[in-house]
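Inverse folding, one chain.
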């Protein structure tokens, strides 16, 4: 059976929790696509993905589905992972404000836009698992999971912390990050790290579901 070994690992009760969980993944690039793959293979049945982009050649080094150059990311992933739901939508401030997040148990933020990530955190911090900077790195041993307030060595996390402090926001939410020093100035990336970010997010989501 497809999920036999997952059920062996988690046990019937916890595996059933995974099958019933509702998860929303915002952004399905180098991090989000691996979170999707991991959750799907682990038995989560109710997964919704959001993205608006198409694949290009530069995505091939790190994104699942990126052989389909020129095609919509969500259309491609819906074919690769039958049964998932997809929203073709840019993640904007207005969308964050108006979208109903209530049906979801966990929200995974693997998007890129800082202002939008901050607004999402303010609105949905209780359900949130956020990815910050995974580019410019190649050492998976440096990856950490912590509260946003315990992050260190990552410029994006620092910017998010500072903006939240200015807004007098002091709640906790989970962040996957790496304090590894940047290895290049441009947007260089390695799937060893971007993929490991996604898999780490999946692990955190599974732990949270089982504890619920």
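Residues assigned per position:
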């Amino acid at each position: 059976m497809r999920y036999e070994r997952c059920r062996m690992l988690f046990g019937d009760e916890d595996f059933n929790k995974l099958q019933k969980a509702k998860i929303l993944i915002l952004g399905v690039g180098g991090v989000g696509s691996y979170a999707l793959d991991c959750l799907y293979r682990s038995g989560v049945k109710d997964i919704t993905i959001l993205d608006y982009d198409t694949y290009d050649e530069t995505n091939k080094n790190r994104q699942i589905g990126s052989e389909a150059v020129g095609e919509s990311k969500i259309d491609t992933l819906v074919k690769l992972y039958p049964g998932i739901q997809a929203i073709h939508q840019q993640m904007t401030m207005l969308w964050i404000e108006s979208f109903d997040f209530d049906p979801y148990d966990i929200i995974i933020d693997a998007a890129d836009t800082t202002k939008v990530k901050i607004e999402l955190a303010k609105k949905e911090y209780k359900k949130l698992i956020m990815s910050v900077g995974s580019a410019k790195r190649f050492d998976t041993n440096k990856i950490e999971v912590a509260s946003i307030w315990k992050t260190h060595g990552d410029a994006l996390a620092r910017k998010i912390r500072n903006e939240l402090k200015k807004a007098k926001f002091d709640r906790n939410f989970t962040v996957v990050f790496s304090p590894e020093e940047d290895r290049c100035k441009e947007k260089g990336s390695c799937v060893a790290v971007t993929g490991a970010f996604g898999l780490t997010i999946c692990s955190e989501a599974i732990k949270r579901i089982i504890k619920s």
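The chain has one domain: 4-211. The CA atoms of residues 37 and 75 lie 15 Å apart.
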